[in-house]
Amino acid sequence: MPKGIALTEEAQQQRRKEIFSASVHLFIEKGFTETTMREIATAAGIGKSTLYDYYQSKDEILTSYYENELRRITERAQKISQKDLSNIEKLSEIMYMHLEYLMENKDYFWKLSIESQRLSAESQEKIQKKRHFYQDMLQTIIEEGIRSGEFGSINATLAARSIFTLLSIAAFTSRPTGTPQEMLNDILAIFFEGIRA
């Protein structure tokens, strides 16, 4: 695009997606620290100066990627939370939706989670705020379930946090006992019913 001709909002969003895609593939292939901004620009088919019009650093690119993904999955979960369902049904549907997301993005999620540990403390804090927003939404559903009598008097904060651990087991365990969906079926039974006889 010649200088002086402004891109439409749609074209800018498309350019950002291209930069995201190029960056993510390089981060996975070479590592976050080892990848340079010049390599990202080349992979995205743009000049380095154009890249800086969109992102000032690799840190900003990877942080934006995580914020975008967390926003997408939180929006899906919010739609489920607004359905006319019991709180157990809401949590179950959210967990199945989240598992499906993890399986669709398994390679990206696992490898980029490792690379994200190299982000600055400030960037990790921004990502953590998005995660906490999602977690707080799950906690609200659990608290509503406690008030309605669906759940016992439990620690809603710990219950909400444990959901992420349980989903990781279903998606990433090295010792599967079935398909991810079958394992989540068992996990939900344990989560909602416990193991007491």
Layout of strands and helices, then pairs:
Elements: H1 9-30, H2 37-44, H3 48-54, H4 58-81, H5 87-104, H6 106-115, H7 121-148, H8 156-172, H9 180-193
Provide the number of structural domains. 2
Contiguous low-pLDDT stretches (5 residues minimum) are none
**Total E-strand runs:** 0
Query: Would you tell me the structural class of the helices and strands?
Result: mainly alpha
Question: What is the second-level CATH architecture of the largest domain?
Answer: Orthogonal Bundle
Averaged pLDDT, please? 90
User: Describe the biggest sheet?
Assistant: none
Element order: H for helix, E for strand: HHHHHHHHH
What's the alpha carbon Rg, rounded to whole Å?
20 Å
So what's the overall shape? Answer: elongated
CATH topology of the largest domain: Tetracycline Repressor, domain 2
- Measured between the Cα atoms of the first and last residue, the distance is 68 Å
Number of helices: 9
Strand content: under 5%
**The CATH H-level homologous superfamily of the largest domain:** Tetracycline Repressor, domain 2
* CATH class membership of the largest domain: Mainly Alpha
Portion of residues in helices?
over 70%
